[in-house]
Specification:
The protein is mostly helical. It has one domain (5-69). The chain contains 2 helices and no strands. The protein is elongated, with a radius of gyration of 17 Å.
Length: 81
């Protein structure tokens, strides 16, 4: 799935949204992606942020894989008919 541009785009959106959610409120939400990750201050522990980020990416991956499987199955059924 890492070669699928749509999946990569969705994971990048998950990362951006998670950064926005846990960034310290002194940052403007529009410029949060321009701040280097090493300089970004979070409102939670770094380890907790990593675990949360991984959990969100996993959820998105499961959702996307299910979507792709259904789409492939529908296309197979269409071809058989």
């Amino acid at each position: 799935m890492l070669y699928d541009p749509q999946y990569v785009e969705q994971v990048n959106n998950v990362i951006s949204n998670t950064k926005r959610q846990y960034a310290v409120p002194v940052y403007t939400m529009d410029d949060i992606n321009n701040i280097p990750d090493s300089e970004l201050h979070l409102s939670i522990n770094d380890n907790l942020f990593l675990e949360t980020l991984l959990m969100n990416i996993r959820g998105e991956t499961i959702s996307y894989a299910t979507f792709k499987k259904k789409k492939t199955k529908d296309k197979e059924t269409e071809n058989i008919n």
